[in-house]
């Protein structure tokens, strides 16, 4: 628990002859103070930290002057403070702040929310594409693996750009806890250091979800619509859109007005496409009660088990942000 204090001249000698021993001492020390070091030395120490530390560790450099530019650019993340020395550090950094005290909000609020939002967004994009691929694979396997697309080209483009884009990208507005709770309980930020929000485990879980839902939609359509197999496109695509919109709704932790608008506009655009492209859809068949209840059944089969599992997990093993939200509500 001793702090390491070293001057710039001594640092240069250690870097020249005892680089490994010096870095081991720096890594083991809770705090290191280097007095009167040059800009080159700052950048060198930053590069050595990236070299000797674990690959999962990220190095952040914070500076407020032109002599900190090389250090800021060498780090994984550079933060520049606009100060009396000018804006050189601020312009060279990844993030710019006006006061050092703003670093707390940058890390514990904006940094934490950004990480969790990026994790949710990237995994949902994977889920969206993989879900479509599973359905296409099953469809081809039914026809002896013939290279026949299940959906017309315009539906594929619409699925990626119009029918699901707004709800999925609205996840960048999602947050699990308010800002005041995130500042009050820093263990929420410590939890992210374990990397559980975006890992091989979560990726594998979303792959299994995509395989299950794609199989449920396709085989559900084969079973329930055996007599109306000619309408396989409208059946499966409608269930696909509803499944994706419901999965976004089940994932959102805190609703935002733009999320509601995104869900509504996406489904409205799909309804309008049915009216416009009548060559691909049979309006009379889509208006029938037989079509509606069967599509709803397929969608429920693909989404309800996942909702039940999530509910059970929340009740018996709630995440830490759920515990803190309930605790803050009781207070």
Automatic annotation (TrEMBL):
Membrane topology: Multi-pass membrane protein
Domain P-type ATPase C-terminal: 91-318
BP terms from Gene Ontology: endocytosis; phospholipid translocation; retrograde vesicle-mediated transport, Golgi to endoplasmic reticulum
Keyword Transport: no
Secretion signal span: none
Database matches in InterPro entries: ATPase_P-typ_TM_dom_sf (IPR023298), HAD-like_sf (IPR036412), HAD_sf (IPR023214), P_typ_ATPase (IPR001757), P_typ_ATPase_c (IPR032630)
Record-level Gene Ontology MF annotations: ATP binding; ATP hydrolysis activity; ATPase-coupled intramembrane lipid transporter activity; metal ion binding
UniProt keyword Transmembrane, yes or no: yes
NCBIfam families for this protein: ATPase_P-type (TIGR01494)
Record field: transmembrane: 125-145, 151-173, 203-223, 229-250, 257-277, 289-309
Protein name (database record): P-type ATPase C-terminal domain-containing protein
Pfam families, per database record: Hydrolase_3, PhoLip_ATPase_C
Keyword annotations of the record: Magnesium, Membrane, Metal-binding, Transmembrane, Transmembrane helix
Subcellular compartments: Membrane
A GO CC annotation given for this chain: trans-Golgi network
SUPFAM superfamilies to which the protein is assigned, alphabetical: Calcium ATPase, transmembrane domain M, HAD-like
Domain of life: Eukaryota
């Amino acid at each position: 628990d001793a702090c390491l204090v070293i001057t710039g001249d001594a640092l240069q000698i250690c870097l020249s002859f005892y680089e490994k021993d010096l870095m081991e001492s720096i890594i083991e020390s809770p705090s290191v103070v280097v007095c009167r070091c040059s800009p080159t030395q700052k950048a060198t120490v930053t590069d050595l930290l990236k070299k000797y530390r674990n690959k999962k560790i990220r190095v952040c450099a914070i500076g407020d002057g032109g002599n900190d530019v090389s250090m800021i650019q060498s780090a994984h993340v550079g933060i520049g403070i606009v100060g009396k020395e000018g804006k050189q550090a601020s312009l060279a950094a990844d993030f710019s702040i006006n006061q050092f005290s703003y670093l707390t909000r940058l890390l514990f609020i904006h940094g934490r929310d950004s990480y969790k939002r990026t994790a949710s967004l990237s995994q949902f994009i994977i889920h969206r594409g993989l879900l479509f691929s599973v359905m296409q694979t099953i469809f081809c396997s039914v026809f002896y693996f013939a290279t026949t697309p299940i959906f017309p080209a315009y539906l594929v483009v619409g699925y990626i750009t119009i029918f699901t884009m707004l709800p999925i990208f609205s996840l960048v507005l999602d947050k699990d806890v308010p800002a005041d709770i995130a500042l009050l309980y820093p263990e929420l930020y410590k939890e992210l250091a374990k990397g559980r929000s975006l890992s091989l485990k979560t990726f594998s879980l979303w792959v299994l979800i995509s395989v299950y839902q794609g199989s449920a939609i396709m085989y559900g359509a084969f079973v329930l619509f055996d007599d109306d197999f000619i309408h396989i496109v409208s059946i499966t695509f409608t269930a696909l859109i509803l499944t994706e919109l419901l999965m976004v709704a089940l994932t959102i932790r805190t609703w935002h007005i733009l999320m509601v608008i995104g869900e509504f506009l996406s489904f409205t655009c799909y309804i309008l496409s049915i009216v416009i492209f009548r060559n691909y859809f049979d309006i009379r068949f889509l208006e029938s009660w037989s079509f509606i209840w069967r599509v709803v059944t397929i969608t429920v089969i693909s989404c309800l088990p996942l909702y039940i599992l999530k509910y059970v997990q929340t009740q018996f093993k709630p995440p830490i942000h759920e515990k803190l939200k309930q605790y803050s509500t009781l207070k």
